[in-house]
Write a structure and sequence with these properties.
Length: 303
Amino acid sequence: MFESFDEEARRCIFMARLAAITDKTKTIGLPQLVAGIRKERPELFRGVDWQKSAVKFARLSPENLRAASQAQTEVPLDAKSRRALAAAPELAKKSGAGQVTSAHLLAAILSADAKLRKQLKKAGLSKESKEVKSAGRQARNGPRTMISRSGIGYDLHRLVEKRKLMIGGIEVPFEKGSMGHSDGDVLCHAICDALLGAASMGDIGTHFPDTDEKWRGVSSLVFLRQVRQYLERKNWRIAHIDAVVIAERPKLGPHFPNMRAALAKSLSISTEQINLKAKTQEGIGEIGRGEAVAAHVIATIES
Ligand code: MG
């Protein structure tokens, strides 16, 4: 829900949760969201006379914040807050801004509840107010805040006879191949997990379960393409992928250019955005004995 929210707007929602804990409300309501915004962006409320408002706000004093931060309580958003947060991206879009800012959040809250709007207007705050409007303009003209996330992925596949060895989307000539429901491509699977992890979208098993006949024998590049689409739908771009593939044999280095090309094509990125490294296991353990291959991946995405 918050992918299009900038860091400040996200902090406002976090503060709203602390306000709800302080207020001992069971849900995060609109007044708590207003309290969160007030804490993070006080200048939006310049000139507001709170005495004239009947709305009760949490007092987010340092002591209250400390106590609330330590509480492990999960506080859900109430229906009105959920509606307001869902409407905020549309407001941001209309104003020409790339992301939802605290000003859009406040405007969405003021649109969500007529009674609250009236009370706040009495105190001197409206979505047409100078402060809210100028914050909206700033969001439109100012530099876009970049959000960057990283995810980790790991996979291991057993090496068996009568299977192809698929790594990084290509077939590596070898006497054994990796076992798996799909083509058993250890590197593609670890990349999928790293990307899904970075976007907080679960893991490969959730999206492509090995109990589904649809995925039997399928090229793992299909998973990569699908994951790339999931990320695109959430406005994430892949910034970089760094991987270590661990195999005792065969030598993987000479195949890296082809692997990078295949991976880059499926992910719609350039080969420069993919780095591959090969390691052996020095003869130790199942990988060292040539019984398995593994891969570790870190993926970085941006929005
Ligand atoms: Mg796997």
